[in-house]
Amino acid sequence: MELIISPDLKENKLEAVFCPVFEDSDKLAKAISYFAQNQENIFITQAKKEKFQGQKKHIFVMKLEDKLVVLLGLGKVRRLSSEDWRETAALLINFLQKYQAKNIGLVATQWLQGSADYERLAQSLAEGLYLSSYKFDKYKKIDKNSIQINIEQIFIELAKEKKNNFLKNWSLGEAMSRGTILARDLVNEPANIMTPSYLAEVALEIAKNNKQVRVKILDKEQVEKLGMQAFLAVDRGSHEPLKFIHLVYKPNTKVKEKIALVGKGLTFDSGGLNIKTGDSMYQMKIDMGGAATVLGVFSVLEQFNIKAEVHGLIAACENMPSDKAMRPGDIVRSMQGKSIEIWNTDAEGRVTLADSLAYAQKIGIKKIVDLATLTGAVMVALGPDIAGLFANDEKLGQEIKKASEIAGEKMWSLPLEADYKEYNKSQVADIRNAATTRYGGAITAALFLQEFINEGVSWAHLDIAAPAYAEKPLNDYTPVGGVGYGVRTLLEWLRKV
Q: Do 157 and 258 have their domain in common?
């Protein structure tokens, strides 16, 4: 999509112009008059006959001599948010799935509806347009009779003095979308393609295409030398070689601080010897959703001029049953020397994360955020759309929560309840990987991870088991499949660090 700033859309040949309108008769009449001077009474009568009043997600089409004008319903009058703009842009894309247009126009003042935040509008519009256009159809035959969305040019009617900031923030929204789309693609790939080696290849490609990013990939022998026995134990049952991926972004300015983003990287989780049922196993290609988010962030990180040095860490492997697989009752040692009793081989993600967190701290990082499709319990607690947020640092937790609100990615803070540590105690090891109670599973899993966080280290854990994959559309710009959850939240957060 080429973005063109124009002081007057009448100077450009457009196939369609899109305008949001509130559910308000006066505002609707003004919008119609703006585009259809001398014909407003005709279209106001038509809108009444179609019972269009600007209701949310309703559409009204005015056929003028040289173009279509499409009014997009916003619902009740309110101050528009970033999420409103994303969802309205998605309504635009939905219309273009039924009406093919390559050159479209938007009037910035009509989209702002009284707001003055041109910069946030630009970013949100780009996100809404690109993300709602997403499809994962690389393995399907293309239906030649279907309308393919192919926007070549978007003309924005905007004052010249606003142009540079608008273009800059549009570019950031486009980058946010590209990172999210990469993460979606990775989650959507089938497990026969999405192996630890594939993830490593993606990381290498990211480093190749970004001057400020470098990467090293550790193999099994190097992981053994580091003492990552917990990670190695989970990998034992699979013939696919494990990979430990370490990405590093370095800013062009003086480093303010070092941050680690740690992503769970189970490219397939059968449950191991505690094998899942068929229905529960079907979608377990998504168990590398945290890793996908980390890679999505790093793919666009240098466009945001982040001042911190950022490390991306992924312990990538499969959890498979075989004669070599770890068994219930096994005891393994983490990189920090703590012993872990394997109570359930299907609670494997936290075992790999124990070594990833230890590695981050060994290289001197004092601020860590991990993302993991960790527990079904968080879905029971918060439903299918909301991630669970745990933090040992209230300020860090609040920063991430605020960033998520800007990004439109839902999360809710859950407690690190100290009394629940009792449930993770083992009689034969320092800790066990599954609690003695079936209740509060998201909390006890987070408390397990906290055992591997040293004093003085700020840490936040995002249990993204629910929103990493959408079994029905998560919102108007997120279709069924991989969501790319967390990419935009982390980028918004890192911009403020």
A: no
